[in-house]
Amino acid sequence: MTDVSRSSTGPHRTLIQYVMLALVWGSSFFFVDIGLRDLMPTQVVFARLTIGAIVLGVVCLVSRQRLPRGVSTWAHLFVVAMLLCVVPFLLFAWAQQNIPSSIASILNATTPLMTMIVALLALPSERPDRWKVGGLGVGFIGILFVLDPFSAFDGDAGPRGYLACLGATLSYGIAFVYLRRFVSPRGIAAIPLATAHVGMAAVIMIALSPFIASQPVTISPAAVASMLALGAFGTGFAYIWNASIVAHWGATTASTVTYIAPVIGIALGVSVLHEGLAWYQPIGATVVIVGILISQRRLPRLRRLKVAGPFPAPAGRSSGPRPGG
Prior knowledge:
Layout: H1 11-35, H2 41-62, H3 71-95, H4 101-108, H5 111-122, H6 130-147, H7 158-183, H8 190-212, H9 221-249, H10 251-254, H11 261-271, H12 280-295, H13 300-303
Helix pairs in contact: 1-4, 1-9, 1-11, 2-3, 2-8, 2-9, 3-7, 3-8, 4-11, 5-7, 6-12, 8-9
């Protein structure tokens, strides 16, 4: 098996991984909602991390790749496991007890904004140019339009759910930047990297489960299927793709995958879970996509403008992690 982070297929393969990641993470909120019908939030997180770790372990074994070595490396991976898996997963699962899956997927799209703020402080080499800033701004306006901030905090439990989701995206933003600054320069391939940090997150949840996830449950076939899908793809293969995208395109750009995920989340929430869809939500989703195109200078008019800091990386830049990147 070829390591996705070292493939010679270049930007086209990374783009495919980007699209697949958006689809998988967009449907994750749907699967969490199904799981919460029979499981506690902590049990959902326990299941997805354990299944994801098993899948990644099998992939790593079949591809004959070695896990990272060194105490300092595993110390950094512990931080990544907490920030990229344990903390945000618990916050989102808890929040979805009180808010619809479609709203959770929309709030998840604030991850690029959180990442950009953290990157400005921690990654001078990734300071966004005016097109990225403008694109993120347009995307944020689209998110607010979809969310309808004038009615978003109606209800008793809603505000806490929204704040939990925003706390989760802040954790994601810190994790993206931490991964790029302290882990990517070590040159760890995508599959061992994903296996290591998801596996460590699973170990953390296994250790905590007697205290936070031991409640008796009645598990339905739907819950089992949703946890298998969430674990194998949303927490397994997705992290291989995520690590590869961060290595190729950088922290801020990689995190824009969460701009597309709300479209998937809203579609599943409305069509399958029968959640309400207001007229302004599709319009807001369109504005979000336009924001992505602006940040990547993919619009025809913007492509003719020569601005420093092209996306993706220039041809002369190595596709793998670089020291000091």
